[in-house]
UniProtKB/TrEMBL annotation, chains A, B:
<keyword id="KW-0489">Methyltransferase</keyword>
<dbReference type="InterPro" id="IPR051259">
    <property type="entry name" value="rRNA_Methyltransferase"/>
</dbReference>
<dbReference type="InterPro" id="IPR029064">
    <property type="entry name" value="Ribosomal_eL30-like_sf"/>
</dbReference>
<dbReference type="InterPro" id="IPR029028">
    <property type="entry name" value="Alpha/beta_knot_MTases"/>
</dbReference>
<dbReference type="InterPro" id="IPR029026">
    <property type="entry name" value="tRNA_m1G_MTases_N"/>
</dbReference>
<dbReference type="GO" id="GO:0032259">
    <property type="term" value="P:methylation"/>
</dbReference>
<keyword id="KW-0808">Transferase</keyword>
<protein>
    <submittedName>
        <fullName>RNA methyltransferase</fullName>
    </submittedName>
</protein>
<dbReference type="GO" id="GO:0003723">
    <property type="term" value="F:RNA binding"/>
</dbReference>
<feature type="domain" description="tRNA/rRNA methyltransferase SpoU type">
    <location>
        <begin position="120"/>
        <end position="258"/>
    </location>
</feature>
<dbReference type="InterPro" id="IPR001537">
    <property type="entry name" value="SpoU_MeTrfase"/>
</dbReference>
<dbReference type="GO" id="GO:0006396">
    <property type="term" value="P:RNA processing"/>
</dbReference>
<dbReference type="Pfam" id="PF00588">
    <property type="entry name" value="SpoU_methylase"/>
</dbReference>
<dbReference type="GO" id="GO:0008173">
    <property type="term" value="F:RNA methyltransferase activity"/>
</dbReference>
């Protein structure tokens, strides 16, 4: 087991990265650190993540139940342990699960490094952490090779997004930056068929779409959907729905599209 | 416009149905009343719901912006209006949206009344309001004729479930009661092909499933999934997924399955 350090003062500088988590994570941390919460995501961080772990911070009653996961950590990662009250005081709100970890984002993945993937998911203006997390979970389930998010989409490494992603935000390669127009230009250059998901009646029904070669599924904000400029620059694709009810959740629309592509590639 | 009644005392008996909403709604109301929250769901309650509306309770600043929706209410529904502080005091927590309504569940729909529908969704042990709401939204999007929930599933007419359902819980017919085994027996008697959704490797891949006649899609709790007894009594169907990642959200799995059935019926 790694070094276990007992923390009995909420002002201990060793747990400074865990102070006021909520506020700091919403505004973003200039030092490139991010926080992971919960047992399942900690186990993925230990086993499968592409990020460097700084430390783990857990409630004292969790040391025993988490022993297996903690044994899988790199040897130099300190395990800070504190009573629940100290942990809550540090974080600034109750950490019911009693499991936190801090990791470093490191060098971001360049857009060009994702453009060899067979299937990509491209998120445009998705500013809700639940939706970004759910989109990652669905992308992982259907074998997507990478995710591209425009600069207005929110951070997949926000605590809640990681949790909703079922931890996939920790290993599924993604690039976050630029605009949807930039992404479409780069994807076209790289030979992708870009499916712009839209409820528009003139779009091609998804069942009629051939799947061959590289495909990128482009999703826009719930409510407004993708801007016309992006739809027009890509291949508009719609999921047939009942009359008078033309919208499902954006991550769900992604799942419906990606499941078709996954199956088409399996049977090809 | 209906009668507008100004409330200036949080103890006014006319707004008694709105007192301590959160606690009362989680335990269930013996009088069969339920609360609807938010503008979109109020408009569906007014236009398309199958329930009788008791009253509407809105913040005083909302009277003007909601005028169009309020004009669509049956003439005998009183509109209670109060300052935000009174509204929050009545409800017991901040009603940011400033829009509430109270309606009555009335006589529940009998299971037998749903068994003529072409496509049904059957929920087993879904105890999370977000998942029940999302399952309704997806069912509405893909033209499901009715939803059956076992007795352990949660109430689709809980405030949050209604909101997540995009209001479809207010008009999509559902039956809530009995066990999954009871449902399977009744569905078989009525001639349904029952698709038990499961990640099990021996289940039929969804792309190989013919859609003809009456189909019921059966979904189990996230995590454990459907119990073996129910899977064995139905037709096990799986959504192909990437190796090592065998689970998507239960409502999302419903969307993937229902979208296939909807399209197959369209092209048939």
């Amino acid at each position: 087991m790694n070094e276990v350090i007992h923390i009995d003062d909420s002002a201990d500088p060793r747990v400074a990265p865990y102070v006021s988590i909520r506020e700091r994570d919403l505004t973003g941390r200039p030092d490139g650190r991010f926080i992971v919460e919960g047992k399942v995501t900690l186990s993925i961080l230990a086993e499968r993540s592409r990020f460097t772990i700084d430390s783990v911070f857990i409630g004292e009653t969790r040391l025993e139940p988490l022993a297996d996961i903690l044994a899988g950590l790199p040897g130099d990662v300190p395990i800070y342990v504190a009573p629940q009250t100290i942990m809550d005081a540090v974080a600034g709100f109750p950490i019911h699960r009693g499991v936190l970890a801090c990791a470093r984002k490191g060098e971001p993945i360049g857009l060009e490094n994702l453009l060899s993937g067979e299937t990509l998911l491209v998120l445009n203006d998705i500013s809700n952490h639940d939706n970004v997390g759910a989109a990652f979970r669905n992308a992982a389930a259907f074998g997507v090779d990478g995710i591209i998010l425009d600069e207005r989409s929110c951070d997949p490494l926000y605590r809640k997004a990681i949790r909703v992603s079922a931890g996939s935000a920790l290993w599924l390669p993604f690039h976050h930056g630029e605009t949807g127009a930039d992404h479409i230009a780069a994807l076209k250059d790289a030979g992708y068929d870009i499916w712009a998901m839209t409820p528009g009646a003139s779009a091609t029904p998804i069942g009629d779409m051939p799947v061959s070669g590289k495909v990128a599924v482009l999703l826009g904000a719930e409510g407004p959907g993708l801007p016309d400029g992006l739809i027009g620059a890509a291949h508009p694709v719609r999921i047939p729905m009942a009359p008078g009810f033309d919208s499902i959740n954006v991550a769900t629309a992604g799942a419906v599209a990606l499941s078709r592509i996954f199956e088409a590639r399996q049977t090809a």
